[in-house]
Amino acid sequence: MSRVPTTRRRGRLAGLLLAAALALPAGCGSGPSAAPPRPLDDGRPLVVASGADLTTGSGAGIRSHLIDRWNADPHHRKAVLVELPWAADGQHSELVGALQSGAADYDVVNLDITWIPEFAAAGLIRPLPDTMVDSGFLPAAAATSRWQGRTYAVPFNSDVGLLYYRTADLAEVGLKPADLGGYASVGDLLSVINQHGRPIYTTQLREYEGLTVNTLEAFWDAGADLVDAKGRYIGTDNGLRKGLEALRGLGVGGTTDQRSLDADESDSLAMFVQGKQGAGMLMRNWPYAFNRLDAGLPPGTGFGVTRLPGVAALGGQSLAVTTGSDHPDDARELIRFLTGDSSERALLDAGLPAARTSAYDPRGITCGTPSTSSVEVDRQGGKERSAVTAAVRRRWTEVLWCALRQARARPASTHYVPFSRVLQREAHRFLLNPTGTAEQQAVDDLPGELGKALGGR
């Protein structure tokens, strides 16, 4: 098994490395107190650090399977996968602490695309040959792999926010899937359904990165930018008010389930599957949820997915070689394998958007047409699980391809994480009291706080 779970990972990792060392022939020392000379090849496996894999509810996910494929070749240096805390915030803290202190022997790290500038500027990851990010990658994903003109990471999987719906519930309020793409924002869509007087939408509004994404999408829909291309704060009082008004349009406690205020991606998915208190009609989530819904919805419950109304944030992870790796050449070869055409296709089949164009076979895809706007999985026959046909899978791929091409990247900054934490804090405080004084407080506080965060102060 090539996956090391989050719990007890340091102890098991140490055991793996010790076992590898003990399997080597003993070195010849010059005396009892002399350290044995380091062998030219210590036999130590490559260690890959990555967040938890959400493509499966339990057991090994697609990343672990890809590591197993690599290990099946006897000519490859073996690799082990170490799973970090599932939430992006926890992953970031653990990776930075481990790499700065040297407490973990990570060779390859799977980074959220927003962290690449920070890790590159801090010298935690190595520059890579520009040829590793070739023209076969999605342009938006490729752009995030570079910092200050140099390549530091290779896109592994991409990501984009999508809107999921229960087919029968959508029809109940008089809407068709084709109607969903006609709204400028999620808030506009929810205002139309608001007359039904019950919560029908769930998203991620807990104080973590998911809330940052939801907030940025609301601000972008309102035409309010906070950061320029050089990572500087450019928000205005008028823009902040427009953005907060768009965020208020989610209607928390009205059309948006109140539980979203404490929900992450997994919580939202569970709420949508359960369908209690009306929260099962609409959901903002990532592409991984498509396969999970097909497996987890009650028998006979059909669902569909479409592009998120308005602007959707670009997500994704990229692979980088750590500065402290003793085997950078092997680490680069592993990255080439994990980001090759075959691996990328496997990622897409498992529910993670591939970062390579070849996985989608985009020839003949025309975005903006009915066939690329939404896809439905018909589970009305009472099946325990729908056998997603090749036609449905192809249409799903087309919807995903078009959504990715329209996605917008989050700000590129070496101080993105503190920026995000400030925005989360203020947005959550506002959503808890959207009709009170929280808006003015946010307008007063955000310029100074975000400016300081982006300036590294």
UniProtKB/TrEMBL annotation:
A Pfam match is SBP_bac_8
Superkingdom of the organism of origin: Bacteria
Whether Signal counts among this entry's keywords is yes
Q: Which UniProt keywords apply?
A: Signal
Q: Return the InterPro entries for the record.
A: Bact_solute-bd_prot1 (IPR050490), SBP (IPR006059)
Signal peptide residues on this chain, from the entry's feature table: 1-34
Question: How is this protein named in the record?
Answer: Extracellular solute-binding protein family 1
